[in-house]
Amino acid sequence: MPEETTTHQATASVIQRVAAVEAALHERGKNPGEFIEQANHLIEEQWIPHHGARVVAKAWTDTAFRQRLFANGIRAVAELGIAMPKHHRHLVVLENTSTLHNVICCTLCSCTAFTVIGLPPDWYKDLEYRARVVRESRSVLREMGLDLPIDMEVRVWDTTADTRYMVLPVQPPHTLGWTQEQLASIVTQDSMIGVARLPSPAPQ
Ligand code: FE
Question: Does 90 lie in the same domain as 141?
Fold first, then answer.
């Protein structure tokens, strides 16, 4: 009987695998260290909810901008220097009112307009949120601290690869007359996803 020639190789260590990936990238003229630095910069400095907060603040104070935002979200946010990746083909801005509440999710995975409203929080990627918010949105929102009046309509929007959403929260009345910078400082990521509404202080 011929001698067994097949040998089972042990899996390479993480260090060996990283070195192999780095070598392959170098061979193709790429610099992985630079790439990781660029990615970290994007994550920490660019893909942050503050961009969306600036969009909201401008929409609250500039009616013409607000109309442009509803007509073509990508073009309107570009006016504020905010770019979206090519595969984000539409940015749909959903207007909350005193009688309508919008909330967004991605039932498939974790898609968001991340260059505008920031990278999604862990709970947004969680199967429980993704599965339940479309079926029992009021209960999920209540569990997250947002108890909506029974007569308020709730609309749930499921993000796709090419259509991204952001919620335009209702401006709290006590902030009328504030500067855009002051307004942007109160806009949270949760309010642009639609799991929160911006509070007004209780009347004195
Ligand atoms: Fe997704």
Answer: yes
Query: What pLDDT is stored for residue 52 in this prediction?
Result: 98
Query: In whole angstroms, what is the distance from residue 204 CA to residue 201 CA?
Result: 9
| CATH value at residue 72 | 3.90.330.10
Residue 94 pairs in a beta bridge with 167
78: which residues sit within 8 A by CB, 6+ positions away? Answer: none
Distance 94 CA to ligand 1 centre (A): 18
pLDDT tens, position by position, 177-199: 999 999 999 999 999 999 999 99
- Specify whether 80 is located in the same domain as 163: yes
Residue positions annotated with a catalytic role: 106, 109-111
Single out the residue of 112, 45, 115 nearest to residue 80, CA to CA: 115
Q: How far is the CA of 156 from the centre of ligand 1 (A)?
A: 15
Q: Does some domain include residue 117? A: yes
Measured in angstroms, how far is the CA atom of residue 52 from the centroid of ligand 1?
19
- 43 Cα to the center of ligand 1, angstroms: 17
Same domain, 127 and 161: yes
Number of domains in the chain: 2
The mean of the pLDDT values for the chain is 93
Please tell me whether residue 153 adopts helix, strand or coil conformation.
Answer: strand
Q: Kindly state the tokens that stand for 31.
A: 């610099």
Residue 93 backbone dihedrals phi, psi, to 5 degrees: -100, 125
Residues of the domain holding 120: 48-193
